[in-house]
Amino acid sequence: xxxxxxxxxxxxxxxxxxxxxxxxxxxxxxxxxxxxxxxxxxxxxxxxxxxxxxxxxxxxxxxxxxxxxxxxxxxxxxxxxxxxxxxxxxxxxxxxxxxxxxxxxxxxxxxxxxxxxxxxxxxxxxxxxxxxxxxxxxxxxxxxxxxxxxxxxxxxxxxxxxxxxxxxxxxxxxxxxxxxxxxxxxxxxxxxxxxxxxxxx
Amino acid sequence: xxxxxxxxxxxxxxxxxxxxxxxxxxxxxxxxxxxxxxxxxxxxxxxxxxxxxxxxxxxxxxxxxxxxxxxxxxxxxxxxxxxxxxxxxxxxxxxxxxxxxxxxxxxxxxxxxxxxxxxxxxxxxxxxxxxxxxxxxxxxxxxxxxxxxxxxxxxxxxxxxxxxxxxxxxxxxxxxxxxxxxxxxxxxxxxxxxxxxxxxxxxxxxxxxxxxxxxxxxxxxxxxxxxxxxxxxxxxxxxxxxxxxxxxxxxxxxxxxxxxxxxxxxxxxxxxxxxxxxxxxxxxxxxxxxxxxxxxxxxxxxxxxxxxxxxxxxxxxxxxxxxxxxx
Amino acid sequence: xxxxxxxxxxxxxxxxxxxxxxxxxxxxxxxxxxxxxxxxxxxxxxxxxxxxxxxxxxxxxxxxxxxxxxxxxxxxxxxxxxxxxxxxxxxxxxxxxxxxxxxxxxxxxxxxxxxxxxxxxxxxxxxxxxxxxxxxxxxxxxxxxxxxxxxxxxxxxxxxxxxxxxxxxxxxxxxxxxxxxxxxxxxxxxxxxxxxxxxxxxxxxxxxxxxxxxxxxxxxxxxxxxxxxxxxxxxxxxxxxxxxxxxxxxxxxxxxxxxxxxxxxxxxxxxxxxxxxxxxxxxxxxxxxxxxxxxxxxxxxxxxxxxxxxxxxxxxxxxxxxxxxxxxxxxxxxxxxxxxxxxxxxxxxxxxxxxxxxxxxxxxxxxxxxxxxxxxxxxxxxxxxxxxxxxxxxxxxxxxxxxxxxxxxxxxxxxxxxxxxxxxxxxxxxxxxxxxxxxxxxxxxxxxxxxxxxxxxxxxxxxxxxxxxxxxxxxxxxxxxxxxxxxxxxxxxxxxxxxxxxxxxxxxxxxxxxxxxxxxxxxxxxxxxxxxxxxxxxxxxxxxxxxxxxxxxxxxxxxxxxxxxxxxxxxxxxxxxxxxxxxxxxxxxxxxxxxxxxxxxxxxxxxxxxxxxxxxxxxxxxxxxxxxxxxxxxxxxxxxxxxxxxxxxxxxxxxxxx
Lengths: 201, 327, 658
Known about the structure:
- Chain A: This is Quinol oxidase subunit 3.
- The structure holds 3 protein chains of 3 kinds.
- Chain A is about 80% helix and about 0% strand.
- Chain A has helices at about 15-45, 55-60, 60-85, 90-120, 130-165, 165-200.
- By secondary structure, chain B is α+β, with helices and mostly antiparallel strands.
- Chain B folds into 2 domains: about 1-65 and about 85-110, Helix Hairpins; about 125-285, Sandwich (Immunoglobulin-like), CATH 2.60.40.
- In chain B, strands 8-5-1-2-3-11 form a 6-stranded mixed sheet. In chain B, strands 4-10-9-6-7 form a 5-stranded mixed sheet.
- In chain B, helix 1 runs antiparallel to helix 2 (about 30-65) and helix 2 (about 30-65) packs antiparallel against helix 3.
- Helix content of chain C is about 65%, strand content about 0%.
- Chain C is globular and about 75 Å long.
- The model of chain C has no long low-confidence stretch (mean pLDDT about 95).
- At the B-C interface, helix 1, helix 2, helix 3, strand 7 and strand 9 of B face helix 5, helix 9, helix 10, helix 11 and helix 12 of C.
């Protein structure tokens, strides 16, 4: 609980509370992994239960999904640059790349909402079949995480603008970075197991 | 003071074993399936009794011997951290006991899925069991008859029960004849039961399924072969035919007495089919309290497809009114 | 969305009407009492906004005792209804609601807060820390739990109680068979409390990993800390599964999704799997800290160090791993085939091995000891034989083929009460008698405690022992009645009478608390039991900062060694430095309220209102993000004063164990 600062470490690790928070967040990500693993498990059990409704091939727009994937993967890369800028103590660069990341994230989200609207127009809703219930909830949970991440990152940017780079703001930025990369990894699994596997049939 | 509890607890397992002599239904099997389970249970009881006796004995001895007394107040216990040998012993012995229990368990598990030993040459009779709220429907596809809330079987003959449910998840249990298995909608589970001798055995649902759960009992009546054949013949000749409308009415959440029909509902629906229609009536389950939204289900039997309607539209306007709501 | 006011309050049952009146009177009474005593400000600044782990722990324990009362009333009502055959005291619907809330409340709102409360009080003290890693998060955990518990508890008077059993198996728990909102309470209230528990788990893992005092390596941690640590790890591994399961249940019930429904391709078996994937580890989340409690108490009152420490740690780890791979034994009868059932039979029975190791280690801790029969020790002793019965019947149930005859009968009910009551409830009582002075500065009365102990233990055995035999005779669980012809009547009556004795035991406990608050000796040391671990090295009740100077440790039972070697027991003025402390915060409480309100609207399917309330939650999170409160420092003078107060007591100080 001491507020001693250890200058030999990267900014976000300098205080004891920061180290606790970062470890705590890693453990939280562990819980998130279990959460998504469960959702994948549910999807894996239900993904062929079409109940007479549309199948994967009927609804998936693979081109849009590819664009979404590129957007999110790029945003993960730009988030990496942002953290790199933070380590170099470059506040402007950090904020610039954070904003780019968020724009890419917002683009992803926009396309995902479009995708959902498209599905609903095809008559494929969460109420249609067990397959679609599990699809919407898996994608929706990821999408909700991205939305939450964007709102959260905006808060962090405001704090960076107000307070500059301090151990506390650096820790917050670092943690949102971890979170963002995690969502990217989850998306890779979604892309593989939901879309690619779904297209193959 | 400790003694009273101790005495009580040591006698408890003895009471427990005495179950074998009295007529607790699980210890009084009436068929080979139930008997194989009872044998397994008795085997496990011996080992468990051994564990209880040893540990209780050790516990009583240690607590009694090392309790604080007026004359040992200056005794200072030694600094003792453990003993590898002892710890290995009390790891190894339980492992051996678990192995001793595992082998017959696995054997019995596999045996229970097959026609019981010694009955392989006897042609089994297949009976479809459909559980609904809150009744049991038994269909004899080969004989073409159907009963509700009772089932007659020939004694000394393997019966293959094919279990499914038209509503909630339930459990089919005739303790005198064998273990239980769940009935689930759009799923089929199977089990073999045999009654050694003619007699009446009680069966029931053990998996909670709402208001009418406590009354979901049925009778298994084992008869001699000739009596059974006579009964089948009689049902075929005298019992009424079940119509689809009557059947739909029957699936509503009600308590019914015994019913007998000279055909089976398998002619138009087998609830074990993955794609069968759903026969649910959420509006009839409105109890007290605040009611939430009910969703229209596309695969509900009331949303008949166009060819269904063509087929049945003469009979369509029979009774759908009436007050069937629960309490 | 018109509100149907006529369905809003549950009416027409004298029992429920009575409870409604009682609830209103109690609430009026509390408000009037607090106002009369002018304690609102005190309540707010000392308790509601506190981030002190000890106070949060105490609040958990108080809630747990209250919930024990509620769950116990449910249990007594069930026992009254089944005391005679064809009894007409409760109807089927009412009975179904009562056993559902009994199960949920006892597991999630009684056992969990009791143990998390004890963990909160004890773990930071045992590892020589000043608080948990995230004090404000800890408060949030509590208020989420409390919000969820309150939401669940109002169900029986407002809107309707859940009635599908504590397992809430689908399709029964879905809208197709339960269109009332009762089961929405289950989905939403448990979700809120579950999030709180998950956050607690993360908090304790970080606390135990990073905040141990100097010299306390992992293998020098007290056993209760070890078990709390592993329980927290299991929480992190298991609770997200429950979160998902409950969310899917919510989607099914509120938005017409098809995860577990009969129609639309849903799969009821998926719910059973998800539920027990969480549910089985959950019972080990409960029982592991309880094992830790017994380890501490048996070691203290035998005046010996714990026998086989390493094998104790190893067996907890094995139990934790096995707890994740046994869930199918809850539904052998689902027809997964002999291969699956065989594997799960083996993993289930294998749990007996590490548990056996622990039992023998406890016995050998006592061997060659000097066993002091305090109340805490009596509870620990009673645990051994009672839990053995629960354990051996557990092995019997674990044998897949035999389970076909036990499943869903009262044999099963007797078994799990024989594991959970000795395994958790006895431990909670033991812990309360043991750590009570640490929390409040006085011990509970030993004499009244004896009444509590004997009534409770005898009542417990009388209640549940008959159920083994009833089960073997074919009596099923959750059945509100039985016929005269069944022949179950005598044993059911014994069981009902037993439950009355059990209840008297609980009343004796409550009276003991009352008596001790009024009359108990306040003049005790920080170490009334002559104990062995660090929590006893500081004052009773513990000062806000726990330790003026963080202790150093070089082995097990550190405080015992300090006393033996007379080292580190005193503190020099020069060693006292300013101590940094976190500030109190009202935010966790407000968040708990916001969650509760949003949850309430969601239960009633008033989606717009729920969304508006959810904005409150988001606002709370944003507020927290901008909160840069760095806490405050306790000045040296204040610490000196506090320390001298408890270290240099004038007059006689009473130790209860020499």
